[in-house]
């Protein structure tokens, strides 16, 4: 009687939560929008979990959000947001044909 009760307790405490956890991770990895989650589901979700916990870690252990070289974390987040989600911005570079006969180009001068 005692081994049966211990087996049931073991199943409830250890096996069922593990099955629920791995089933949930499998369901999340079926159609993700990030390629790292599609290729490595557990490492990808761990990465995004640590990204969410980042402000708590930085509060005590790492640099502040306004510190950083060459630019701060707040500036970096602004750049990432602009690059990923804003469609009204034009990237750096030319949007027109640059080698036409009517174009004027500055010529470098050499000073001797």
TrEMBL record:
This is Uncharacterized protein. Keywords: Membrane, Transmembrane, Transmembrane helix. The chain crosses the membrane at residues 6-28.
């Amino acid at each position: 009687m005692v081994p049966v009760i211990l087996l049931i307790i073991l199943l409830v405490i250890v096996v069922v939560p593990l099955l629920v956890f791995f089933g949930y991770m499998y369901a999340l990895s079926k159609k993700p929008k990030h390629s790292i989650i599609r290729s490595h589901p557990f490492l990808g979700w761990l990465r995004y979990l640590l990204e969410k916990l980042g402000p708590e870690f930085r509060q005590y252990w790492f640099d502040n959000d306004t510190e950083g070289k060459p630019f701060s974390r707040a500036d970096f987040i602004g750049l990432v947001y602009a690059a990923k989600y804003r469609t009204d911005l034009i990237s750096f570079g030319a949007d027109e044909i640059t080698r036409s006969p009517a174009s004027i180009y500055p010529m470098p001068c050499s000073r001797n």
